[in-house]
User: Fold NB-ARC domain-containing protein from Rubroshorea leprosula.
Amino acid sequence: MDSIKSAIDIVKDVGPTVRRYVKYQFCPKDYVDQFVEVQERLERQLDDVEAKLNTQLNQPGKKAASQVDNWREGVRKETAVKVEDLTCKGGCFTYICSSRKLDKKTQALNKGIYMQGEDYTNDGQSLVIDDHSIEYCKSVLKKEQEQLKLRQKDIEARLETQRMQPGKIARKEVEDWMQKSCHQIAIKVEDLISQGECSSSSNLEKKIEELKQTFNQGEKYTNAGENLVVDDHSMGYCVHVFKDKQGRLNHHKELIEANLKTQCMQPGKIARKDVTEWLEKAGQLIAIKVEDLISEGECSSSTNLWKKIEELRQILEQGKEFTNAGVTLVIDDHSNKGVPLLVEECRGRDDIQDQILEWLKGDEVTRIAVSGMGGVGKTTVMKQVHNQLLEEPKFNEVIWVKVSRDFDIIVQQRKRFDILKFQKRIASSLGLELKPEDHENETKLAGLISQRLRQGNSVLILDDVWQQFCLEDVGIPILDGNNGCKLILTTRLHEVARAMECEVISLNPLPPKEALALFLEKVGSAVLSDGRIKVDIKPFLEQILQKCGGVPLAIVIVAKSMRGKLLPCHWKLALSEFSKLESIIDCLKFSYESLEPQCQECFLYCALYPEDAEIYKDELIEYWIEEGLIYKEGITREAMNWKGHDILDKLVDSCLLELARGHEFYVSMHDLLREMALEISPQFLVKAGMALEKLPEEDEWREDLLKVSLMENHITEIPLSMLPPKCPMLTTLLLSNNKISTIPEAFFEHMLGLKILDLSDNPELSRLPSSVSKSEKLTTLLLYGCESLIEVPFLSNLVGLKKLDLSWTSIEELPQGLNMLTNLKYLGLGGRLSETLDEPLQNLSKLQHLLINVEPDAETESKREPIGIWGKLQNLEKLDLQGLDNSNAMFGEIRAVAESTPLPAGTFSSLQYISVSYCDKIKKLFSVRWLGYLQKLQTIEVNFCEQLEEIIGSESEEREKVTLPNLERLELAVLPQLKSIYNGGEKVTLPKLERLELEQLPQLKIISSGSLICDSIKKIVIKDCEDIESVFWSGFNPLPNLEYLEVYFLNNLKCVFDEEGLGLSPLEPPTSFFSLKEIRVGSCGQLKKVFSSGWLLRCFQSLQTIEVSCCYQMEELISSSAHEEEKVTLPKLQGLKLTRLLLLKSICSSSSVLICDSIQSLVIFECEKLKRIPLNFPLLDNAQSSHPPSLKEIVVWPKEWWESLEWDHPNAKDILFPFCKFQQKRG
Assistant:
């Protein structure tokens, strides 16, 4: 024992460092070390937990959890234990006694207190709990009350603003929330405690939770789009709203009907079914009389009447899509009789047409094919037959479908007919409304088509068929008895006609006599003398005609190319060229070769579009510009655009292109001419619109290719395994309107000559490969509509780039190197950018067109940049800003416009067009000072800017008269806060302004205070501007050039032409309105009259049309005055239309008559208080009265009203009756 004691004494003396390594007689060293190591780990763990706990305790209202406190105390106790103390106290002899027992204690610490500490060090583990002390709860409750009070004030302010709208009251749930929040804010915590209601912290916590719930419930009422009010359902107000909605609906209906009428004038078009259904429903709702609804008990309460109002609102909302600009209200359908196709006279084909009609009228032949070479006139013949069938009562429908090679697809290296695409084309022509699930189901479509065609006898004409197909697969039922259809197809291929089991009619070239007549018709009468061909021209003409081989297309085109060539030498030279020709295509080439080189290249470019494509003119011209075909250094983009239209007119006049379906905005190319263009251009690879699902094979990408067009296919990707095409001469690659998602990194590596790359409208494409940057000759890169695109490679190598369009993409960062593209003329940007544009754009001094529809990141909102950027863009012609919520900061502080910040000299010196939309933070567009920078501006379009208050902001300092010398068009729409266009003291002159269009400007009271001078204005359109009281502004200046005036939904307008407001006098000669031709007024709820006096009409001697509708307070068209005239003369008035003027009592004073010797149409609906139509009847030579000589129709409703009319002339009814049309219902 003595020896053990002495060993322990030694350990105590040497200290803790040495003690770890002393071998105890009963406890081997390894177990001692393990125990000490656990203690040290516990100490480190305690430090980590303490640090984490201190951080969490910084949160208000928190305290350490009791189990954490217990653990901390336990760790401190265990780490204080020493092995020698245990031993000295007899621990090893008493409760350890062996190394095994020490090991057990070590393991217990490891698995117990240490593992518990591991939980506390986890990131997600909370070491604190809420401090439920009374004092803390009091402070939290007061804080929650303050936050709720702020929210309540915000909502109260928004509610008051919305209540200012007429006929609006607070929503019940909003009022309930306001009352509840007021009650909770008024609570005093001291009272709760003293009265015993909240004597404990737990009760206070319940009150705090109630406050939080109320606060959160109010969040939705703070949203910008949240409506806090509802319509006031009192009966009087409901009646007013009902009539107003009816008026608005009627206006929309008339607009849609007019637009529909125009679109239906296109050959082969009929109204969409949903449009006709909407018009029918709208007509029914408009015809309802609210007084009848109330008196008959159907709407005895405001609640029931409001249901009708909601029905009106819904149908009005549905109709808005039909009034959008560019909306198509018609579909392809050639079945309706009375809608003939546009076609020229068909010479020498009467016998063919008669044979086809005979077969169709009979019962034996059900399938007919007209075959013949390209250009021989198959389509022309069938258009004539189509138009004749429209008059044939046997057939219910005549359907025309253009087929061509548009339906050929390649599957497993073999060409086959695309049944599904063909079915969709037929369904569209039939007007079938397909459900989404029908679009990809051949069997379902076949059933729908068959069911539709079996509803009666019909004729289906398929033009330009290239492959046979199974009629049953498509759904074409051949006539069986009285149901089904007869089939006619045109084709160049006799084998197709035979395979389709058709009776074949071969169409041969024209005989010489008919060919000559056609040639002379197209070449013009200048080659004739006394009705015969000039002798010195005749031999050349006959030989040239012989070369045309009787093919009508060739005859027409060649004749047009020789039009105006009168000298024999011209014809002799032409014949020398014709002598080398061997085919019809060669003849067509002659016309092509007679074009100027510039027109030739533009013509060939059209072949890059799919066969029979309807080509949008503006898009085609843009391509020409970017190809450099009509580019000329130094001329404006607008001038190049007009040059493009001039070239198109020449190509159409030469019959090398034609207007697509007679539409002025589109052109198309005959397939034979397209073949010729592609034959002339062997270095073109064109597979556009062929439903390809993958790129052409590698061997088709020849090294000599110049242009490749694969637009409008179904290509989904470019395989990573595909070797980069070696096309060093390729200049144009068109891959637009596909479904490409990936492009190999090296795909463009060998396209070093590429100038135009169009990848637009590939919505799945997310990134552009870096190899694009190697195409250093690239001038045009189009990526618009690539909605998934987020990354564009480094562009600094593309210094020749002139057009870059990234609009409607999702890019988040501007392409690196953008600022080095110093030759850019067109830049379109889209996406969500986190950077400003000032620096990247400052080097783009040649930029002409800038389009931006980005949504800047919120971080940029606070940045304020210099506005010098605009001074650098001195060649900018067109600026289009869309959807820029933070635009004040995005573009060198656009807010500076309103703040009159001076700009560098030369700023906007070339700008011609400005469009601003969805820029919700701009309050003023221009200051007067800014107008000095806009001397070339021609067009301003502003719409959907929620906070815009002024277009031109006034300034405190006086300045000289300011002029916008070239402004021609000003269009403002949907600006809810706009209060004035210009309301300053300085004179602003717009000497060339021709069009002023204002729509949905509810806060606008006056157009100008008289400081806006625009005498040259020709067209004024004002709609939905409820606060405007006068169409013509104070300090009125004469408008001698005004030709068209349209006014709708001006609820505060009392009179359109008021002599006092206009400052006109009957004692002075007329100086205003003498060019005005059309007046259209509608749905002006307070309008009493259009003209304040009869003598005013001296100013309106050019007036041709007056239309007034749905003005329910209107009593007079032309009011009586002290200077009344016996005869009111409108010598050029052709149309007078008055509809739904329920209080109208007179057109003019009872002592006056209207002298309208040019009147053609008189239309009067629902003007039942009108008792007199003061028409003057001219006298014939025999002194008998007659109707106005130009009169064509009188359309009225109801008929009973017409019978009750009083006439100044005793025979008026008899004279006018032959012209009357009595409508069964209001039209």
